[in-house]
Amino acid sequence: MQKLEQKAYPAAQAILAELSSIHVTIASVLDGSIDGEVWADSPVNPKLVIVINGDGYFLAGNPDISQQTANDIRDIIPDWAYLFAEECWFPHFAKIWGNQFVVPHPRIRMGYVAGNALPEPYLPSAEFEIVPINQELFSRNPENIELLEEKAEGWVSADAFFENAVGFCALHQGAMVSHCLTDSVSGTRCEIGVDTDPAFRRMGLGRAVSSATLAECIRRGIHGIEWHSHASNKGSLAIGKAVGLTELDHHMAYSCSLPAENIGDLTDETCLNLALHFEKASQEINWCHFHAAGARALSGDRENALKNIRLLIESDWEGEAEWLERFWALQSLSGDPDFHALLRRKREMEAS
Fold first, then answer.
1. I want to staple 240 with a disulfide (CB 3.0 to 4.6 A). Which of 11, 161, 245, 259 is the partner?
2. What is the mean pLDDT of each run of 10 residues along the chain (352 residues)?
């Protein structure tokens, strides 16, 4: 396996055609508009290709490979990867992936059907303002703008972001409380995502910023609008449907993490089973305590959630206290003095 130069990317397009038809991210990496890497078994006539974008890994090609190639793939795909692969690869994960504790993440892709009417953006009160995500917004520097700064860093340059990205956000008293933004754009296709501060959910803000973003995409001639979501994310799917998107397909990702993004997305029984699974995994991969703690907290098991956090901190985990503090699955512990004591302990370790 070798990392391709961008001039060699066209040779990988045929192998990636199926995955690229589902994931605009791949097309955007090949276009060179967002950051990424492309690895292949040959720069001229590849039969196996891996595309990397952040923690997302996309695997396509023929799984009939040598042990040496399998070892090369294991070196490329880390334990913590979020992996999308063609179905033919699913039975071969044990051979190509060092993490044997990954769990399936069912996902749904929605899309815009040309001609569907878009709802007018609606705001719950005059206290809110919907504004485009552009250079002017960054100059205003509203509270929480770092969320968008992180997304902008995923593009090859700031100019590429401001020229190609499309999005809107809702501001409330100088803070950004909801936003919808294209994660990637390639030609007339894009993938968009939405996020709303938990304190401002169920107010229609996600629907408002999403509707405004879709309308602007269409105005720019970007009609292939796609929306990817965990199958468990009822809120995201409801917003997509409300702004006129239609379900396109179901597909699977794999990761050693919780297959959800919001409290209430998973049943208590599912959370308990995941906790037991990640606790077993933590015997070999210490950072699995992180997700075990989240699963325990979601199931209402405070004591074992704290136990997993303590074990995580006492290991050689290289993460940060802020990751624990911001982890959505641990929000039930936000006011817990024992949780904060563990965070202080971690921060002292980071400072030493």
1. 245
2. 94 94 95 94 94 96 94 96 96 94 97 81 86 93 89 91 95 93 95 92 92 94 95 93 93 97 94 98 96 97 98 94 96 96 96 87
